[in-house]
Structure formats: C-alpha cells, structure tokens
Amino acid sequence: MAMHTAPSLRIPSSSLSLSSKLPLSSPLSLRPFPRRHRSLVFLVSASLDAKPTVLVAEKLGEAGLNLLKDFANVDCSYNLTPEELRTKISLCDALIVRSGTKVSRDVFESSEGRLKVVGRAGVGIDNVDLAAATEFGCLVVNAPTANTVAAAEHGIALLAAMARNVAQADASVKSGKWQRNKYVGVSLVGKTLAVMGFGKVGTEVARRAKGLGMHVIAHDPYAPADRARAIGVELVSFDEAISTADFISLHMPLTPATSKVLNDETFAKMKKGVRIVNVARGGVIDEDALVRALDAGIVAQAALDVFAEEPPSKDSKLILHEQVTATPHLGASTKEAQEGVAIEIAEAVVGALRGELAATAVNAPMVPAEVLTELKPFVDLAEKLGRLAVQLVAGGSGVKTVKVTYASSRGPDDLDTRLLRAMITKGLIEPISSVFVNLVNADFTAKQRGLRITEERVILDGSPENPLEYVQVKIANVESRFASAISDSGEITVEGRVKDGIPHLTKVGSFEVDVSLEGSIILCRQVDQPGMIGKVGSVLGQENVNVSFMSVGRIAPRKHAVMAIGVDEQPNKETLKKIGDIPAIEEFVSLKL
Ligand SMILES: NC(=O)C1=CN([C@@H]2O[C@H](COP(=O)(O)OP(=O)(O)OC[C@H]3O[C@@H](n4cnc5c(N)ncnc54)[C@H](O)[C@@H]3O)[C@@H](O)[C@H]2O)C=CC1
Ligand SMILES: O=C(O)C(=O)COP(=O)(O)O
C-alpha cells in the first residue's frame, strides 16, 4: 500500500541534539560491555537476571533506604577511599552518592559495564563525571527538588547570622568575654540583595529576603523575566548585580562558565563593604581572591557553606579569617530535606533499574511515561530496522551516513523521535561492534564512530491517532550483500510499520514486502514465476525450519520479485545453499534480528 504523502512537507528535525552537548575532547576508552548486560532496552537493563545491588556510598535517609531494600541488595558503605570504591563498583548495578564522593572516569572504567545508574541524592552533579557516565551508557539521576527549601533557609540563616556576627559573638561569649561594642552588626531591611542564579534555591531565597524587607535583584541569563517579575524581583546584568548590591548570594551551579566568577576583577567592581553568602559551590569563588578582597575591606564579610576543596585545609586563610562565617556544607542537611531527598533518589534509581525512563535524568532525554507507552512498538521497529539495514551492507565507504524518515500525521512538535533515533543507532552499531548502545550513549557513540544520522519527517494526511505510519532507514554510499536492497536513489533502504502492535518490514529497496520483524528473515530475489513460494517453503520444511511469515513483492508481473520469509530460527549453511541452488533464485540473504 503506497502512502499518500500530501502535503509532502519535509521537515528536518533537530537531529543529534544530545550529542552536541557532550564534550568530546578526552581520548575515548570505550570498553566492550559483557554480554550479560546487553538486555538493556531503554536506559538500563529492563530485566536484571538477579536482584540488583545498590551501593549507597553516603548517608541516606531511612525511608529511601527502605524503598531500595524492597527492590535490591543494598550495601551501605560510607567513607570509602577512591580505591575501595573502584573495587566495590564492579559488583554494583547502581551507586548513590551525595556531594562527598567523586564519581570520576575511573569509577566507570572499574565498573566494567555493570554500573547502570548513578543516583545523586541532591542537586549538584559536579562531583560526577557526566561525560564518562554517558560514554559508558550509565544513567545519572539526581534529586533536584527535595532540598531546595533547606538550602534557601540555610542561605537566609547565613545572611542574618553574618549581618549580626552571631557565630563570632557566640565564640566570644563562650570564651568568657562580653564584647557588645565589637559585634555591632548591619541591618538587612532596605538593603539590596543580588541573587546570582535565579533557579529553585535562588527564587526561594529571594522570596524570603523580600519578606525581610530587602530590595532583591537577580542575575540569571537563563531565567524567565516574568517569573522574576511575579515575585517582585528585577533581573539585571552581572555587572549591575554585583556593583549595586549590599549583599550577594550565590545560587548558580558550578560549570565552566561559573567557575571563579567572583575573582579579583569582579571583586573590584563591587561596592566597598559588600557581604557575600555562598551556599552554591565553593568553585564559583576564587578563594584566594576573596581573602584579598576581605583584607582590602572590599568585602566586609562572607558566609560560606561550600568550598573549592571539601573539607578545606585546617590552615585555610579563608576559613580562619575573622570576617568569615563557615559551615560544613550543611545547606541540604535538615531532617526533612534528607528524608525527601532519600525518597526522591531511591524512586529514581529503582525506576531506572527497572528500565523506566527517569524523570530526573541528567544525561538522557526525559520522555514522559505516556509517550513511552505509545512509542514502545515503534522503538522495537526502529532497532530492528537498524539491525536489518546494517546486515545488508557488504562494503563501500563504511556505514557513515544514515538517513531516517519518519512518516506521521502528527505535527513535528507532537512526536519525540530521540528514543527512536537512539534505537536505530543501537540497531546499526551493535551488530558490527562490541559497543553497548542505549539511550544514554547512543548519540555519543554514533558521533564517536563518525556515524551521521539525519532525520526527516514526512507529514501525512490522516488521523494523528497513530504516532507513526512508517519509518524508513537508508544507508548511503555502501554496497549491499543483497543488491535488491538498494533503492532507485542508490541507498540501502528498509522501511517498516507497526501492525497490530508488531513491527513489520514493509519495504526492501524498491520492493514492497510484508513480514513481521521477529526471529530471522530470509530475503530472496527471484524471477517472478509460479511455484516459487512452494519450492523455498519445501526446502525449509525438509530442514525443519519453521516459517512464520512469507510475502512476495514484485515490480511488475513475471519480472523480478523479492520474497521475504520470516523464520523462527536461522537456517544453517546447507539449507541456505539449497535455497540458493533453486534455479530461479537470483540472490538471497539471511538476516538475524
Ligand atoms: N549547599 C548545599 O547543601 C546545597 C547547594 N545547592 C547548590 O545550589 C545551586 C543551585 O541549586 P538549584 O537552585 O536547585 O539549581 P537550579 O538549576 O534550579 O538553579 C540554578 C540556576 O542557575 C542559573 N545559572 C546557570 N548558569 C548561570 C550563570 N552563569 N550565571 C547566573 N545564573 C546561572 C540557571 O539558569 C538556574 O536558573 C547548585 O549549585 C546546587 O548544587 C543546592 C542544594 C543544597
Ligand atoms: O544538593 C546539593 O547540591 C548539595 O550541595 C547538597 O549536598 P549534600 O547532599 O548535602 O552533600
């Protein structure tokens, strides 16, 4: 059945959007993943052979631990040395950490492919090497919401404590002194607070600071101005924020762009006597420059919860500075936040181990559950078309350029193809390599192998009930083991549809066929004449190969035809030879799905 493709509007989709975000600078050390872990369907293994093992490397709330224990063997081993972590990790399917554990490349290498999920029980994932996780196909999830209020409250606590010298005065009283004149503070009301990073924590700090009567401005190049306006906060430039503020509170993530954003140059632009709060990450401040700014009186005081190195060295000039109030990374440390974070991360890790797509995935697209359910048969179709297409390649310039066409009655914004692209990539790469491909590392792996996948949409008339009518995969600049698979445009072409929930192959080259994509497939080109189905069928029958499906596609009667035969098991060499010996058979190929 030929599809009506009017209006034949072709819309290139934003292909390979994931891979473009991934740093590719480091030398690659992809390791073959052991076979036993290849049952991965979506993100991680959908069917783990035995109970998975979760290593909890930092203290986690009881409720979260109980959730994990219902599903997995839980190994709570705190304060591991990097070497102990590397040793343990090869026995673990998931790892849960907070900010105190460095999950670096060597952790992924040492896991030898077993580690499928890293759960960060908190927000900041700067302690996890995301690029390495992605290369190794390991999903990283975090718990982005449960500690927001705790961090904001700690920011406000530090702000007020700093302004009124609470920590210093407390130490003084405890040492037997009564220095009322020394610890005269400054008021918050009417002062300007610059919130740097107007995300979840920054917004909550801003709300609370307004309640204290402060004038709040914010700098965040990515935050929507209307969200700021809604709570009476003006978004301003970086320079305006730091040069007009009496207090600066930092709430951005540590990224290459935010690393040491407060430095000698930027301190010099601040109002003399400014006060700084940091509950974000120590690395956003050049700590040596802060000491200089404190000594010069540019910065009157600083209240810090986070440090470039944690714990900081005991003789750190910054910590020992009289005008500095320090806490040991306590922002998220309330009972309530820790219970919340533990539940949030346990649910995310268990879901990911079950093969579900995580809502808090950091290094994979987040695909809502309902979209996933709808796309499931198309995901199978996509992988099988990829597998089939690559097995048809005989030589040429290698599998480098692949064009995927999705035909759908839905609008381009109503169809998320990232999952399909990942599975086509999996199908294309796995049969020809020892690399394990999943949704996390598909785009990365494609890019690393120089495989360029371009995507196109064909918008069809008709009901948008079905997400997709057909998917077509074309491999350019290659020769084929089955010449009939080369379409008129010169590419290996396979096309498939989902029928009654089952993926079918519906086109090979220019020939229309119809065979369900299960088990193995034999493709034969023959002179179109009566009795061919019977001849091939009886060879297979004699050799005890069960035929599940058969279909013949021809260009014109009595010319050439392509027969697609679905078989439950792959025929042996002798059987295939007997098929090849049938006089009217011109070429044939046996493909494993
Ligand atoms: N001390 C602690 O225990 C805790 C620390 N944190 C830290 O607080 C920070 C913020 O956390 P959330 O608000 O949950 O994250 P978020 O992702 O909701 O907010 C971060 C905001 O920073 C903005 N941003 C990114 N680059 C920026 C730049 N160059 N300049 C200005 N703004 C920029 C983003 O647009 C975003 O709005 C993170 O670093 C997190 O790790 C969070 C919880 C507890
Ligand atoms: O969530 C964050 O980003 C935090 O910094 C909290 O860190 P923690 O889990 O307390 O080690």
Attribute tags:
serine biosynthesis; Rossmann fold; 593 residues; EC 1.1.1.95; NAD binding; binds 1,4-dihydronicotinamide adenine dinucleotide; disordered N terminus; phosphoglycerate dehydrogenase activity; seven-stranded mixed β-sheet; binds 2-oxo-3-(phosphonooxy)propanoic acid; phosphoprotein; alpha/beta; 60s Ribosomal Protein L30, Chain: A; 4 domains
Main β-sheet description: 7 strands, mixed
Poorly predicted parts: 1-42
Strand content: 15-25%
How would you name the CATH homologous superfamily of the largest domain? NAD(P)-binding Rossmann-like Domain
CATH class of the largest domain reads Alpha Beta
Report the C-alpha radius of gyration, rounded: 30 Å
Helix content: 25-40%
Number of domain modules: 4
Bound molecules: 1,4-dihydronicotinamide adenine dinucleotide, 2-oxo-3-(phosphonooxy)propanoic acid
- CATH architecture field of the largest domain: 3-Layer(aba) Sandwich
Order of the strands making up the biggest sheet: 1-16-15-17-19-20-21
Rounded to the nearest angstrom, the distance between the terminal CA atoms is 24 Å
Counting H and I runs of at least 4 residues, what is the number of helices? 18
Describe this structure in words.
This protein is of the alpha/beta class. It folds into 4 domains: 107 residues, NAD(P)-binding Rossmann-like Domain (Rossmann fold), CATH 3.40.50.720; 179 residues, NAD(P)-binding Rossmann-like Domain (Rossmann fold, 3-Layer(aba) Sandwich); 143 residues, 2-Layer Sandwich (60s Ribosomal Protein L30, Chain: A), CATH 3.30.1330; 73 residues, ACT domain (Alpha-Beta Plaits, 2-Layer Sandwich), CATH 3.30.70. The chain has 18 helices and 25 strands. The longest helix is centred in the middle third of the chain and has 23 residues. The chain is elongated, with a radius of gyration of 30 Å. The two termini are 24 Å apart. Keywords: Acetylation, Amino-acid biosynthesis, Chloroplast, NAD, Oxidoreductase, Phosphoprotein, Plastid, Serine biosynthesis, Transit peptide. It comes from Lupinus angustifolius (Narrow-leaved blue lupine). InterPro entries: ACT-like_dom_sf, ACT_dom, Ado_hCys_hydrolase_NAD-bd, ASB_dom_sf, D-isomer_2_OHA_DH_cat_dom, D-isomer_DH_CS, D-isomer_DH_CS1, D-isomer_DH_NAD-bd.
